[in-house]
Amino acid sequence: MTACYINGKYKKLSQSSISVTDRGFQFSDGVYEVIAIYNNKFVDENLHLDRLRTSLNKLNIKINLSSKQIQNISHKIKKLNKISNGIIYLQVTRGDQHPRDHKYKNIMKPNIVIYSIKKDFKKLDQLALKGVKTSLYPDIRWLRSDIKSISLLGNVMAANHAKKNNSHEAILFDHKNNITEGNSSSIWIIKKNICYTHPLTYRILKGCTRNKLITILKAHKFKFKEKLFSKKALLDADEVFMTSATNFIMPIIKVDSYKISNGKPGSFSQRLRKEFINSI
Ligand code: PDD
Predict the structure, then answer these.
(1) HSE (side-chain half, CA atoms, 13 Å) at 123
(2) Integer Cα distance of 123 and 209 in angstroms
(3) For the chain, does the N or the C end have fewer beta carbons within 10 angstroms?
(4) Hey, what CATH class is 3-119 in?
(5) What share of the chain is helix, strand, coil (3-state, %, to 5)?
(6) What is residue 1's predicted lDDT score, i.e. its pLDDT?
(7) Rounded to an integer, what distance in angstroms lies between the CA atom of residue 55 and that of residue 274?
């Protein structure tokens, strides 16, 4: 059985439920986090717990659990579900409200759910050796992508466009043809030995893997710039890769029918993936 934490109790995931009056169900009024467990270690745990707090603050959702308590619950879920490699999902909605009203009450009781899935990171390592194909898709999401909101329809549509095209991820571009991010990742290019990624604005999520990679780049004195880059620059790049909690650093070798460089994973991307995994 898979266990989950739900509003103070540990229950079977299959026997856990949230009310239809939940504002997450009614309005997508909630946030979430995704933390990888790799060889029994939580990856960038504090960065994710901090970002959860930031997302909650940005939406004025108040929970009565400290980050330490959330950490303890996540570790208990890992133990109960015997996860040595997997993902922890933390879902928080503003809570139940009836009668339905866009305006929330001053005092709400958030619904908090924490559960896990198993993930085979060995398969991901194999994939990283080959690199992945991606597809371009317009960024049709709302304008506050800095909040890790559970409102994910734009991402869902992009991801399913990618799936239809046998792609691993969709790469999103804005109305000026600049790349924002992936449907669930940060996107990077390398040109003339400089790494580029979108600057931190409302249009992208502050990726924890992105954060960690910047620390690695700085430590190794690798050049990087947080700067807008266009669709054209993406296709002309020497290397392209994506970063996320669920993929770590994944080389991208194809964007729709365009090969990136020679169509093989770039050596720098592969080196960064190794550095990242060594840092876990
Ligand atoms: N997504 N941008 C978006 C839109 C994302 O959904 C994610 C992560 C990222 C990368 O963030 P991080 O490095 O902290 O994982 C960027 C997770 C994996 C998800 O929603 O499943």
Answers:
(1) 6
(2) 19
(3) N
(4) alpha beta
(5) 30, 30, 40
(6) 80
(7) 30
Ligand 1 in reach of 180 Cβ (< 6 A): no
Angle at 216 between CA 210 and CA 220, to 5 degrees: 145
Which residue puts its alpha carbon closest to atom 11 of ligand 1? 207
- In the annotation, is 221 catalytic? no
Average pLDDT over all residues of the chain: 98
| Beta carbons of 94 and 62 less than 8 angstroms apart | no
Every domain range in the chain assigned CATH 3.20.10.10: 124-279
Q: Please give the class, per CATH, of domain 124-279.
A: alpha beta
List residues bridging with 30 in a β-sheet. 93
Alpha helices in 4-116 (DSSP H): 23-27, 45-58, 67-80
**pLDDT tens digits along 148-178:** 999 999 999 999 999 999 999 999 999 999 9
Single out the catalytic residue among 105, 118, 119, 148: 148
CA dihedral of 208, 210, 212, 217, whole degrees rounded to 10: -170
Binding site membership of 185 for ligand 1 (Cβ less than 6 Å): yes
Q: Which two structure tokens, joined as six digits, stand for 130?
A: 């080959």
* DSSP letter (8 states) at residue 33: E
Q: Is the pTM of this model over 0.85?
A: yes
